[in-house]
Amino acid sequence: VAYAGFAPTADSLHVGSLVPVMGLARLQRYGHTPIALVGGGTGLIGAPSGKKDERSLLTPEQVDANVASIRSQLERFLDFDGANAARMANNADWLTTMPLTDFLRDVGKHFTIGYMTAKESVKSRVESGLSFTEFSYMLLQSYDFLTLYQDQGATVQLGGSDQWGNITAGTELIRRAIGGKAHAFVMPLGTSASG
Fold first, then answer.
1. Which residues, listed in sequence order, are joined to residue 89 by a DSSP beta bridge?
2. What is the DSSP pairing of strand 87-90 with strand 183-187?
3. What is this structure's pTM?
4. C-alpha–C-alpha distance, residues 54 and 23, integer Å
5. So what's the pLDDT on residue 140?
6. Other CB atoms within 10 A of residue 142 CB
């Protein structure tokens, strides 16, 4: 079981999303089960985007509408029926229901500030300004991986190469919190129609 995450920052996926979608589609064609994780929870706070400024926050209603729209787009590439049917998941299901103190105790204790600031997605934004909200994104994505590992048997997370630090943080959380073994698979970013 492998998964890739998709941010519901708009009501449509962008060309860069095609690379991980096709990664999931190829895995499915070879007998593996793909999970398309839509970030309904992480979409409420935003992620370090590699850009100079923090993303604008969306309302819960905007995020929910975007999440609903993304499934119909994924159905063009993934088969949601059959023996290894694709699954949809929404991290709002666990992130919006977990008390903050539980999250800090169960997830935050496994990461040092040094570990987090060494990751490129954080390091590149520290000088220009990084809110605590964006800083915490790595922990949230790590918890997504742990949750999908425990609840749905996901052992691989795939994504764009810009997500390497967040994805490997998830493999670390799985190892540190429960002694499990998981894997990261990243692909080059598709930043334009020409690739």
1. 37
2. unpaired
3. 0.90
4. 28
5. 95
6. 26
Give Cβ neighbours of residue 15 (< 8 Å, ≥ 6 apart): 190, 191, 192, 193
Q: What is the pLDDT of residue 177?
A: 97
Residues 6+ apart with CB under 8 A from 43: 7, 8, 9, 58, 63, 66, 67, 92
- How far apart CA 90 and CA 83 sit, in angstroms, is 22
Separation CA 1–CA 155 (nearest Å): 6
* pLDDT (0 to 100) of residue 43: 83
Q: What is the pLDDT of residue 49?
A: 52
Distance between CA atoms of 135 and 47, rounded to whole angstroms? 8
pLDDT along the chain (195 residues), means of 10: 93 87 96 95 70 66 87 93 94 95 96 88 76 88 98 97 92 98 92 68
